[in-house]
Amino acid sequence: MQCSDARLLLHAYLDNELDAGDSVRLMRHVADCPACSREFERQTQLKDLLQRAKPQHAMPEALRARVLAALPQPASTADAPPLLQPRPPLRSWNMLPVALAASLMLLLGGGGIGIAWQRQVSDSAALANDVLSNHLRSLQSQHLTDVLTSDRHTVKPWFDGKLEFSPQVRDLDAAGFVLVGGRLDVVGGRRVAAIVYRRRLHAINLFQWPDSAANSTPVSVVAGGGYTSTHWVQDGMAYWAVSSLDRPGMEAFAETFRTSPALSVPAH
User: Fold this and answer.
1) Fewer C-beta neighbours within 10 Å, C or N terminus of the chain?
2) What is the distance between the alpha carbons of residues 123 and 129, in angstroms, rounded to a whole number?
3) With a threshold of 0.85, does the pTM exceed it?
4) Where does residue 114 fall: left (phi above 0), alpha (psi -120 to 50 degrees), or beta otherwise?
């Protein structure tokens, strides 16, 4: 394992998102690399410090009473929540992964029922949450790309030796989706490719990795909280895209990518 890969996986390890194999390889590298060992210790201390320093603010009783009094009263007092236990606030962007997972299950048909269906929903919701979190983190940390170029013949070979698969990089300029570059990322404990496009001021992260599903699936689109996510499976690859672009724009992006020709690598 190289230092660049180890640094990429450190956060996933500390958040318990790595599988057993990657965790063992990462810890072996950290044990043998003084620089990565120091970085691991620094990140561990930072995480502990943030958890201990997390503010705990209790709502004043007077304010709580005013808020509850302003809320619509339930039709039946038997169904009303306890006065001193107000419901937690809902955040629409937190509901986006759950909504996306539910829509994916509807596309799969009636075969996933009961416990198996619930497990699929849970897994899909976790992936959708990872995808959205990674998109937001890439914008906030100014780490949108590891390789910054609009040349797909440069982006695709950049991943050689860094992943166990070759990601799809397609030319979408004619449709208004400009290639920005690519980077390595981690989704669901696996290393994935993130191909970055831009539509005007909107960055689009297209995450992709091999999928063992035998059949392709149609595009699923869910919008909420100012973000739109799309997901589909095509030719043995899973694609998850997320952006602040509106729903029609993301539908156009997914359709353009799906129907554009794959990049052919010339023989040497």
Assistant:
1) C
2) 10
3) no
4) left
Residue with tokens 């039946």: 76
Q: In sequence order, which ranges of 33-174 are alpha helices (DSSP H)?
A: 34-53, 61-70, 92-107, 115-140, 152-158
How is residue 164 written in tokens? Answer: 């166990």
Which of 261, 263, 208 is CA-nearest to residue 239? Answer: 208
Superfamily of domain 97-259: MucB/RseB, C-terminal domain (3.30.200.100)
Contact 208, 232 (CB under 8 A): no
Structure confidence by residue, pLDDT tens digits, 167-216: 999 999 999 999 999 999 998 888 999 999 999 989 999 999 998 765 67
Q: Does domain 1-89 have CATH number 1.10.10?
A: yes
Evaluate whether 247 touches 225 at the Cβ level (below 8 Å).
no
Cα 4 to Cα 183: distance, rounded to the nearest angstrom: 12
Q: Where are the domains of the chain?
A: 1-89, 97-259
CB 131 within 8 A of CB 157: no
pLDDT-flagged residues of the chain (< 50): 77-93, 95, 104-122, 266-268
